[in-house]
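Box 3.1 A note on notation
Throughout this textbook, protein chains are presented in two layers. The first layer is the amino acid sequence; the second is a token string describing backbone geometry. Keep the layers aligned when reading.
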Amino acid sequence: MRAVPRIMKVGASILANVWRLGHKESVVRAVWIVLLVALTWLHAIAAEPARVMLEELTWTDVQHAVKAGTSTVIIPIGGTEQSGPHMALGKHNTRVKALAGKIASRLGNTLVAPVIAYVPEGAITPPQGHMRFAGTLSVSAEAFAAIVEGAARSLRQHGFRDIVLIGDHGGYQPQLKTIADRLNREWAATSVRVHFIEAYYRVTQTAYVDALRARGLSDFQIGTHAGSADTSLMMALDPSLVRPERFEESAREGPAAGSAGDPRKASVALGELGVELIVARTVEAIRGAQARH
């Protein structure tokens, strides 16, 4: 609504100029013009999506939002790891931020904290798992827990009452549940709760896989890492991070190139299917968790 004072200023200027001319008909016409402009601007403002990303707001924006009833905040957890030769290292981070934004908008009265991009990816020296591929970043389980807990404690301090954890990576799901349980025990006498939403990740392993099978994809094409399921989601959310010209290489080289599946059937349409499933199931799970407390 920051544009409202601007509208009033412009309108007042138009009316003042017309009034000085002294033409009654012109004054009436000017009033109608000002009203029409005001309605047009207000419609445009209403059509703009509200900002939900914490990092895009000022501290006073956040303070006002909390006072106005924004009591839920999502902490999205990603990870920086290889996803084959055809997908960028920031897949999890980009994906969870975009999906968290959609989830927050659908929930209402919800903000999204910055993505946690540093997560446990396995031993660094000697490298294991994804750490065998250049660019993957790994931290200890203890460091990861400290970051997640610190974020949750900070948000509680600022007045949020429902702190939601969603993770885009499979490896740390049990740890997120442990962190949520520990904080909830500590805060049991307060109105604040941490909700670990397992459904966010689980849907990508269940309902989304079933939907892709129903569209004729084999389990190998769907894949478990950087296959058509993984790649389609990324194409639907940020196609600039996907390199279709390297699909053949990824399918041919398989685990040696860091992929487990075949991305050649990936498409934006299949990804959009997954996006809607993830958003709908996660929103439902968050509302259910809030209703239980």
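The longest strand covers residues 72-77. Confidence is low (pLDDT under 50) at residues 1-5, 40-48.
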